[in-house]
Design a protein that fits this description.
2 helices; 0% strand; 87 residues
Amino acid sequence: MKKENKEKSVVWQSISIAMQLGYAIALPLVIFAIAGRILDKQYDSSPIFLLTGVVLSLIISSILVFIKIQRIVKEMDREGHDPSDHN
């Protein structure tokens, strides 16, 4: 029974991590793309601000994902998990 609970816990942790990474990618993209589109309409400069927003969001998303993965790896090290152990 404990093994089944542990497996369920791992599944939920994996889902949580995937959602967090998804938000770290999607939110900056949506925010900066919308802001860029609004600025392009205001200054009649399409697609300069939109493209700038997309590039900025990619940079920010990459940084956020990198930080999140570093935290996950540190937490796994503290808990004694071996990343190569699939059992």
